Amino acid sequence: MGLRDIAIVGTAQRPSEINSTFTSVELLLPIIQEVLTKVGIERQDIGFWCHGSCDYMSGQPFSFVAAVDAIGAWPPIIESHVEADGAFALYEAWVKLQTGEVDVALVFSNGKTTSGPINRILNLQTDPYMVAPLWPGFDVLSALQARACLEAGVVTQRQMAEVAWRSQRDGKNNPFTLSGTEMSVDELLSQPFTVDPLRAHDCAIPVDGANAIILAAGDAARRLAKRPAWIRGIDHRIDTQRLGARSMIESSSATIAAQKAGVGKDRIDVAELHAPYTHQELLLRQAMGLSESTHINPSGGALVANPAMAAGLARFAEAAESVFSGSADRVLAHCTSGPLLQQNLVCVMEGE
Amino acid sequence: MAELCAVVGVGQTKHAACRADVSIAGLVREAVDRALIDANITIADVDAIVIGKAPDMLEGVAMPELWLADALAAHGKPVFRVHTAGSVGGSTAIVAAQHVMAGVHGTVLTIGFEKQSDGNAMWALSVPIPFGMPVHAGAGGYFSPIVRGYIERSGAPKHIGAIVAVKDRTNACKNPYAHLHEPDWTLEKALETPMLWDPIRFIETCPSSDGAMALVIMSEERADKHAGPKAWIHATAMRSEPTAFAGREQISPRAGEMCAEDLWRKAGITNPAKEVDVLEMYVPFAWFEPMWLENLGFAPRNEGWRWVEDGVTDMTGSLPVNPSGGVLSSNPIGASGMLRFGEAALQVMGKAGEHQIAGAKKAVGHAYGGGSQFFAMWLVSSDKP
Amino acid sequence: MSEADGLMRLRLPIAVTYNWSAGPNATSHLAGLMEGKLIGKRCPSCSSVYFPARNGVCPKCARILAEDVTVGPKGTITTFCIVNVPFLGQKIKLPYVAAQILLDGADISMQHLIQECEAEDVRIGMRVEPVWKDRSEWGPSMENIEHFRPTGEPDQVMGSESGAS
């Protein structure tokens, strides 16, 4: 049996904010309406809804329940929620569309990343018995990884600064991100370490954000978009979380997911990588076998705007928009989850 | 396009107030190992893992599936996390089944778990929100006024909840995995238990449990080659609606009705009360048995309580409900929905042991969550559709 | 630390502090409470009046509620429960009546305390009114209302959907 042709046909993103006073519902409602308006359909036309968010980001159990209020779920709808980045909600919607039960799906995600201490909150993703009680936080764990990579010669400090410089330069042109500094690579390299060997610009800027994407199958996709971003391959994989049990200088889950998604079958014009630390972008490029000709994160990437639980779906929005506009033909969207690139989702999309 | 699939392995833990003998990982692994053994496969045969649990604050671990990748031997595999409140065990099984129906994977392992003794459920379910009035008192405080509304509307006598509770606790004694094994309940004794959230009595509430349920779901192609009994998934359905809006019917929410209507349509069922042999329904407070019987289209409106009183839902009745003892006897929240789905599968596989309903061919698993707003159901059968 | 079954257990509390925002759409509601007013909002699409307007949206229509509407202060009990179970962080003395109250002019009930009568005398359809705390204790919170009490007016006959919303 063959899989159906499924494409992204519309996206909407909210400009990033710090310390947003909006509630999650207030963040989501306009963005859901915007994507519906852009695609030119009503909420009743959506066969399946899927939401990605994390209770610990909002400090409230069942926080996603209120988000149903942003949909207008009446009459009742077919809907699901993942405790994960919206990119995983997109994956669930893709699976749902593959069953043939529905033809159009809307996925959305939100993260109020600046309402709590994100580094401390993400610490709660680690082993609750042996690691979490030490409260290392993600910055410290990532610094361990960065040092391992530097020592092994897999990345250099200059390459890391170049990633930061390029991300900040490109992010300035993106209305959805916060503009970064205008320092040169050399100036960046002269900045003090925050968590040695990481400097401030090596770590993503946590922001509050929300986004929504509409997916459609076959003819519905052709009807709803001039140039749909067809999903040619999508896959996600996980690695062990135990620091001592895996290689810190590679990401085998990203390698497998990229291979399953068919990354290597042809040239990738644009890759939107969800890399919250500069060295992780370099690791991901190697893990997925991306060549120098691929334009990495023209949006500026998660480094200049990282709404946790929405940053992965934002990569899908950015990659799909580059297909819509015709500026790219074959694109890659990626989402990572967990400490040290533990879990990776990779999707390859093409224009027709 | 939608392929046929079947449950070929079911495994659950012994549910208990505190499984101090195992970690969260050990608890999950106990269910997984049993499901894999039941399916006669190893983890190497599993293409993907779909895992669900209720709020992460119940244990204080954010997105614990990440850390659990080791315990699940999931390295290099897809691990997918679902969270749809109390319905999550059901939704998770459905999302897992859809991976197979979609033709994306051939063998999927799905897990629902909760280790409530690692945290404080009453706290986690009643985190006070600033600027509001802190009258909320856990799930019981939320659902009790709705139960009162049902009693008022249907004219049900006040002892109906206790009848359900005694039935489920008695059934649980036939289920070695159930948390509560309390064989000595009588209706008289039940009616002497104190009112916690009047009109809900102590006996009519669910326990707080540690536990996990795991299922192995295979594509038709693989299941056909698989020896042993199978539960063919004839239909799945999910519906959601907002928690609160003007004019909302809370006693019999529209989303629940639509979920059931969708299930009956997909499974070709015209008379659920006659055609369904056994029903594993999500009943965390006893009164929800008659309420859901009506909501799902089994009993006519305001008549569900009569079915309870007449013994229709007893193990010996024409529509046995929760022979496993149900949520009233074991409630590891994130697993509770999958326990309903898995117990339904066990019944049609003929593997329910002492609580087996003889000759069960069609069984329904049901779960709900949030403010009675998220619904998930499946219908499984010993025969292919 | 406790020992049972030969096992040693550690209790390790986790604390994370969040900044919580009620959102701009809640402003008129919360500002109203500071002045002893109950301000709800009307949906521009279905005309339902919400109090309090959660996130300032109509969940049915997915519309932002723009028009402020003063509701109450009296209301009718649509359903209730008597809470007898203690839990962590509880602020109110047991037993207490938690009731769903449909304020006059509102289309959705809200939950509050009923006092100044015996728990067994509380009934669906009972008319109630708010008892405010001393003004010096007011803040932007529904806690400004100490509780609701019976007005003594005749009961309101509720529709067949008693318990609905």
Overview of the structural elements:
Chain C: Residues 31-61 form the ChsH2 rubredoxin-like zinc ribbon domain. Chain C: Residues 69-133 form the ChsH2 C-terminal OB-fold domain. Chain C: InterPro entries: ChsH2_C, ChsH2_Znr, NA-bd_OB-fold, Thioester_dehydratase-like. Chain C: Residues 146-165 are annotated as: Disordered. Chain B: Residues 248-371 form the Thiolase C-terminal domain. The complex is a heterotrimer of chains A (352), B (385) and C (165). Chain A has 352 residues and is an alpha/beta fold. Chain A has two domains: 6-116 and 206-229, Thiolase/Chalcone synthase (Peroxisomal Thiolase, Chain A, domain 1), CATH 3.40.47.10; 118-205 and 232-350, Peroxisomal Thiolase, Chain A, domain 1 (3-Layer(aba) Sandwich). Chain A has 13 helices and twelve strands. In chain A, the strands form two sheets. In chain A, strands 3-2-4-7-1-8-12-11-9-10 form a ten-stranded mixed beta sheet, sandwiched between helices. In chain A, strand 9, helix 11 (278-288) and strand 10 (295-296) form a beta-alpha-beta unit. The mean pLDDT of chain A is 95. Chain B is built from 13 helices and eleven strands. In chain B, helix 2 (88-101) packs across helix 13. The two termini of chain B are 16 Å apart. Chain B is α/β, with parallel strands linked by helices and 385 residues long. In chain B, a hairpin with a 1-residue loop joins strand 5 and strand 6 (200-201). With 165 residues, chain C is mainly β. Helix content of chain C is 5%, strand content 33%. Chain C is built from one helix and twelve strands. Chain C has one helix at 27-34; strands spanning 2-4, 7-9, 39-42, 49-50, 57-58, 63-64, 67-70, 75-83, 96-103, 110-114, 127-132, 145-150. Chain C has a five-stranded antiparallel beta sheet with strand order 10-9-8-11-12, with no helix packed on it. A three-stranded antiparallel beta sheet of chain C has the order 4-3-7. Chain C has a two-stranded antiparallel sheet with strand order 1-2. The longest helix of chain C is centred in the N-terminal third of the chain and has 8 residues, at 27-34. Chain C is globular. The model of chain C is unreliable at 160-165 (pLDDT under 50). Chains A and B meet through helix 3, strand 3, helix 4, strand 8 and helix 10 of A and strand 3, helix 2, strand 8 and helix 8 of B.
